[in-house]
Amino acid sequence: MNDGLKLFAASLAGIILGTVFFGGLWLTVRAALASRHPAAWFLGSLVLRSAVALAGFYLVSGGDWRRLAACLAGFVVARLVVTWLTSIPGRADGPAPGGSAR
């Protein structure tokens, strides 16, 4: 496999890892809000999501910093996409939907 294809595969793996990590965080927040023990949800989720992400980065990189960087770039892209998909329009902590400040 040539270098370009390896970097592309690493970035796709980063997107998958980021989707799992940040999608899992979103699911954790939703579950913790309805739980009697939200701290347990957050702690368990943090440990599991971090372990999956770190193991994924380790396996994808294969000791090559360029593949690690490509994986991290995909992870960041997934963060932006998941944040955009799960955002609440018209929040009080941001500008109004029309672009003007309240």
Keywords:
102 residues, mainly alpha, 0% strand
Most strands sheet: none
Helix/strand structural class: mainly alpha
Total of DSSP H or I helical runs spanning 4+ residues: 3
Share of helix, binned = over 70%
What is the total number of structural domains?
1
Report on the structure:
By secondary structure, the protein is mostly helical. It has one domain (7-84). Helix content is 75%, strand content 0%. It has 3 helices and no strands. It is elongated, with a radius of gyration of 17 Å.
Summarize the structure.
The protein is an all-alpha fold and 102 residues long. It has one domain. The chain has helices at residues 3-33, 38-61, 65-85.
Topology:
Blueprint lengths: L2 H31 L4 H24 L3 H21 L17
Helix pairs in contact: 1-2, 1-3, 2-3
